[in-house]
Design brief:
Radius of gyration: 17 Å
Distance between the termini: 38 Å
Structural class: alpha/beta
Length: 202
């Protein structure tokens, strides 16, 4: 899987939208946009901006939105989409190039394993203002008959999958500086989303 994601985010970044739409049954962008109601404040940092769809929405809403991504190819795609309004930086989430206490909310949608790197979480905590929140859209399941059949065949259920991910996420985040954690299932028309919100409260 690491090889696949490395190819998707780098030499084959131009196929990202097509792959995302295919694996999500056309719901990918809708899933990403469902993170917006959970944003607090006006100064927003996105980790892993990808092709820039969420940045476009945030900027259209008049928010001060900046973003980083470690993929130069994704940066090129996003800059074409956003034009002169873009505030994108080529950087790692483990070394966020912004001053401490700069942001009200930090967003990550369907991040790869970097989100569970302790250095990523330390950096996120550092650049958040007191009362700020890290909002991660971790996973999603379409309400689709085919997926329901696959769960049945494999002897699993969506609720068991959710509970497993929730448990592992809570266990990991319990060892970070974040002192308030919510892991919740957000039910939307076509899907169930697994959202993690970690707050900085000193």
């Amino acid at each position: 899987m690491r090889v696949f994601f490395n190819l998707l985010y780098h030499p084959f970044a131009f196929t990202y939208d097509l792959v995302a739409a295919t694996v999500s049954f056309g719901k990918w962008k809708d899933w990403v946009y469902n993170i917006i109601p959970f944003i607090e404040g006006t100064r927003i940092l996105e980790l892993g901006h990808g092709p820039g769809h969420l940045q476009r929405i945030l900027l259209n809403r008049g928010l001060f939105a900046v973003a980083i991504d470690e993929s130069a190819q994704m940066g090129t795609l996003a800059k074409h989409r956003l034009g002169s309004s873009q505030k994108l930086t080529h950087a790692l989430a483990q070394k966020i190039p912004f001053a401490s206490e700069s942001f009200d909310s930090i967003l990550a949608t369907f991040p790869t394993e970097y989100i569970f790197d302790t250095q990523t979480l330390t950096e996120a905590y550092r650049v958040l203002r007191n009362g700020g929140r890290l909002i991660v859209l971790l996973a999603a399941w379409p309400k689709n008959p085919l997926l329901a059949w696959l769960f049945k065949v494999t002897g699993q259920s969506p609720s068991e999958a959710y509970e497993s991910i929730k448990s592992k996420t809570k266990e990991f985040l319990a060892h970070t500086e974040f002192n308030r954690l919510e892991v919740q299932i957000v039910e939307v028309k076509s899907s169930n989303l697994l959202l993690v919100i970690a707050s900085k409260e000193e």
